[in-house]
Amino acid sequence: MNIELASFELSSEALIGSLLALCVLFAFCRNLLLEDVICIPGKTKHSWKSIKILDKACYCNACEILLTHSEGLFCDCCGICTHSAHACFKKIDINFKCKDKWLRHEKIMRHLWIRGNLPVGVVCSLCDVEIDYHATAGLFGWRCAWCQRCYHNNCYKSIDTRTECDLGEFQDMIFPPYCIIAARTRESVRLHLAGIKPPNIEGWEPLIVIANTKSGSSTGSHVVALLRGYLHPLQVMELGGRGPQDAMQWAAKASPRPCRILVAGGDGTVGWVLNTIFALNIKVIYIKSNVI
């Protein structure tokens, strides 16, 4: 009788301990899933997409061989290209950095130079002559992934490539990485958006892009890939299960500076964004715009 009682008491203690462990695990997982934060990647990883969505010929930045649609990849953040084969892919991923998502100690921007695969018809920022790289096979010319300035090979050699980057003609729309404040808290084990320090850029009104990649003809992924190349990658968001909530947090962190919001999607997507704005009591300034 005593043995059976001891066994029952031990089983009860084990059961209670297991339930407590499960409750703690559930609360931890629930907190990770529901915490109202925007995660900031700690490492500058590339964001790979198929070159099928590009309308130009591309060469691998590792082996300099022409890429085919079946095996070519490009980073929609910085524009670097590679074969999907392990050797080229690994070389690019290790040796070529992508756009910084945030900078802890820097107060200025540096150029991020990418060789070759320039936009069609682009003009050299030094000599004002069109860079016709199609006349030569392989990688030709240089482009900064932030300010979008492009140069011939010889022109590139004659400039100081280590100078400060001013983010180019779209500087008033971009969140510079050095203005983003990222932090960890007791409630969040991940690096998250804690604040935004407005940069010293005249007329700075950053553009927040919300794209529904499943809407209409599903061309939203093309819009995302294009705009991430021109802007800070994190300010171009695909509409997910959380809805437009993340985008509204960017706007709240940038306050009192106004933000511009571009919605890529159908009527339902636009309505979803507007309902979220009204629900959060965000002040809206309407501007006239052409529908495209």
From TrEMBL:
Highest taxon of the lineage: Eukaryota
GO biological process, one term: signal transduction
Domain (DAGKc) ranges: 202-292
UniProt KW Zinc keyword: yes
InterPro entries (alphabetical): ATP-NAD_kinase_N, C1-like_sf, DGK, Diacylglycerol_kinase_cat_dom, NAD/diacylglycerol_kinase_sf, PKC_DAG/PE
Limits of the Phorbol-ester/DAG-type domain: 110-165
Any Pfam family: DAGK_cat
Keyword presence, Kinase: yes
UniProt entry keywords in alphabetical sequence: Kinase, Metal-binding, Transferase, Zinc
GO MF, one example: ATP-dependent diacylglycerol kinase activity
GO annotation, cellular component aspect: membrane
PANTHER family: DIACYLGLYCEROL KINASE, DIACYLGLYCEROL KINASE EPSILON
Protein name as catalogued: Diacylglycerol kinase epsilon
Gene: Dgke_4
